[in-house]
Design brief:
About 0% of the residues lie in helices and about 50% in strands. It has no helices and seven strands. Strand 3 and strand 4 form a beta hairpin.
Length: about 140
């Protein structure tokens, strides 16, 4: 399995579509970096990642607004396509399994939220919060690896 993680800003508002009875949220993420080339010139490089998040939890889509910063992870796919000028273009696509809101375009922080593609396990018996740190009975520095 290959896993791709990206932190960047949304290029436009997310769209929600229904494909063969399944919901998908589509969005693009831009990651920009600056560096100096061999001649000492400042270079700005932006990598665009097209994201598809197949989930029934489409309530996330209204929060995926242009300029907002997110973290997304999943499986990468590279697609080739024919450009108008006859050359072959390449796009990087991410099939998202986890997405987290990091911030918004106007500088105010959104409430951090994480969404996973897998449904949460429910026990039905209780609805109380569990603190896994309280369940540890062994010393933390005595790890088996």
């Amino acid at each position: 399995m290959i896993k791709l993680q990206v932190i960047g800003h949304l290029g436009k508002d997310a769209t929600t579509n229904n494909v063969n009875g399944k919901s998908v949220i589509n969005f693009t993420v831009a990651h920009s970096e600056k560096y100096k080339d061999a001649h000492g010139n400042q270079v700005d490089k932006t990598t665009w990642v097209e994201c598809s998040y197949w989930t029934e939890r489409t309530g996330l889509a209204p929060y995926l607004k242009k300029g907002g910063q997110i973290y997304a992870e999943g499986s990468p796919e590279v697609r080739t396509y024919a450009k108008n000028d006859g050359t072959t273009g390449v796009s990087l696509t991410l099939r998202v399994v986890n997405v987290q809101l990091l911030g918004s375009a106007n500088g105010s922080q959104n409430q951090p939220a994480t969404h996973n593609a897998q449904p949460a396990a429910t026990t039905g018996a209780t609805n109380k919060k569990q603190n896994p740190a309280q369940d540890i009975t062994e010393p933390i520095d005595d790890l088996p690896f």
